[in-house]
Specification:
The chain is of the alpha+beta class. The chain is built from 17 helices and 19 strands. Strand 6 (about 175-180) and strand 7 (about 185-195) form a beta hairpin. The radius of gyration is 23 Å and the shape is globular. The strands form five sheets. It has a six-stranded mixed beta sheet, with helices on both faces. A six-stranded mixed beta sheet has the order 12-15-16-17-18-19, with helices on both faces. A three-stranded antiparallel beta sheet has the order 2-1-3.
Length: about 450
């Protein structure tokens, strides 16, 4: 369901109800949790964005949206409220984004049968021009509007599921991660964009065989990248038996989903938006047009982000497999999403992995560590860069000058730490612990 029909008057009426009930009772009444990122600020009071706009939706069609009915991410909701003239603050530094616990993981067989491989070629290998009449005329106004919002150029990759998976697919929403599997490997990784039920639209992309079943649920991919992850690696992350073959559709959530998403270093566009690291893809800006003395609205297109880096992911999985008595996770902030935030016997450590050891990669690790360190909650005892092999002295000295430890791979499953000089680390700790991130 879409929130684009909600008006300013609808929101104002909902804010009055929020004030009458109080925030805690309002959220409990309609089944929402407290905001993790953006807040409406109105007449000096703060309100939960998602809860307010979800309840405001009942003034459109008589029913409030449930929290699991949203296809929009927090940044998109904030953008809608801003366009309605409300002041929105956030995101709040140090809060988790959908990169971890809140994100769901869809495991979708997609490369086994001849039919699946044909569908892959038609709508994953290449984007579909969904604004062309043969596609657009089969979409509702809301579905087409949502697709245009997430894919402003009118093209997107698509996948889907048949009606027998309706129960599972109801749980999936924008920003969730999908693993496309086949032939004992994860063949590709994607980020869910728009998701809706529309057999007519699906049949244009994937005509069913004689007497065959339509793909009823359809979803676009905000991001899509090829992968080559063995089932054994995925099963290790999920806690499954090593010989598990992933025969059908799976939708996972909670700790199990987080372990796979973080273990594979999957970084979704939605998580970056919700953390404030990038603007929503539908953000509009007014730009002056030179020589014409007029102004026009144009879509702000941001740089392409890497959804999945297989070399860094493999390195991180191998390294984490050597750790004991340690908790590892990832941390989302306005600076982005780190590779590893480690809590162990020696304290908290922020680790950034790189797939190569050339100077440009070393400098990138340095910049990312110093940027992320400003946002990590609590004290961080070490900043560390992880590499697949030892560094040259010049690159090693660069990191050590800024108090950053180095861990490099010596052999399969064997890593060595080259610590920074204690004095340099203590000097730099004073810098990164006292830095206040700007919002």
């Amino acid at each position: 369901m879409s929130i684009v029909e909600v008006t300013r008057e609808h929101v104002l009426r909902t804010l009055t109800e929020y004030d009458d009930l109080g925030g805690e009772e309002f959220r409990a009444t309609y089944g929402f949790g407290p905001a993790r990122s953006y807040l409406i600020v109105h007449e000096g009071r703060h309100y939960d964005c998602r809860a307010v706009i979800g309840v405001a939706h009942r003034h459109v069609n008589g029913r409030a949206l449930r929290t699991d009915e949203f296809s929009e991410g927090a940044a998109t909701i904030a953008s809608v409220l801003t366009r309605l003239g409300f002041r929105v603050e956030g995101p709040q530094a140090g809060r988790p984004a959908r990169s971890g616990l809140a994100a769901r993981l869809l495991v979708s067989p997609a490369f086994g049968s001849a039919e699946s491989r044909r569908h892959w070629k038609d709508t994953l290998d290449q984007p579909v021009p969904f604004t062309e009449p043969r596609y657009a005329q089969r979409l509702t106004d809301g579905q087409l509007g949502r697709l245009k919002e997430l894919h402003p150029d009118g093209r997107a990759r698509f996948w889907g599921a048949t009606s027998r998976h309706d129960g599972k697919m109801e749980k999936v929403s924008t920003g969730d991660v999908v693993l496309f599997t086949g032939k004992n490997h994860v063949r590709a990784i994607g980020e869910i964009g728009a998701i809706f039920q529309n057999s007519s639209f699906a049949d244009v992309m994937w005509p069913p065989n004689m007497g065959g079943e339509s793909w009823r649920t359809v979803f676009s991919l905000r991001q899509f990248g090829l992968a080559e992850v063995p089932y054994t690696t995925l099963s290790t992350l999920l806690g499954y038996k090593s010989n598990f073959q992933y025969p059908g559709q799976l939708v996972l959530s909670g700790e199990r989903a987080r372990a796979a998403i973080d273990g594979l270093l999957v970084t979704t566009r939605t998580a970056l938006e919700e953390a404030g690291a990038v603007e929503s893809s539908c953000t509009l800006r007014e730009l002056a047009v030179e020589r014409q003395h007029t102004r026009s609205k144009t879509v702000e297109r941001v740089a392409q982000r890497v959804l999945f880096n297989r070399e860094e992911s493999a390195l991180v999985i191998e390294f984490c497999g050597t750790l004991t008595d340690t908790t590892t996770k990832r941390f989302a902030s306005a600076a982005g999403i780190c590779d590893i935030l480690l809590d162990g016997p020696d304290g908290r450590e922020l680790i950034e992995a790189k797939s190569r050891v050339e100077r440009s990669y070393v400098r990138e690790a340095l910049a990312q560590l110093l940027d992320y360190a400003r946002y990590v909650p609590g004290e961080v005892g070490r900043l560390t860069a992880l590499f697949p092999q030892p560094l040259e002295p010049k690159e090693r000295n660069l990191l050590h000058h800024y108090g950053i430890d180095i861990i490099h791979r010596l052999a399969p499953g064997v890593f060595e730490r080259v610590p920074a000089p204690g004095q340099a680390r203590e000097q730099m700790r004073g810098v990164w612990e006292s830095s206040e991130p700007s919002h």
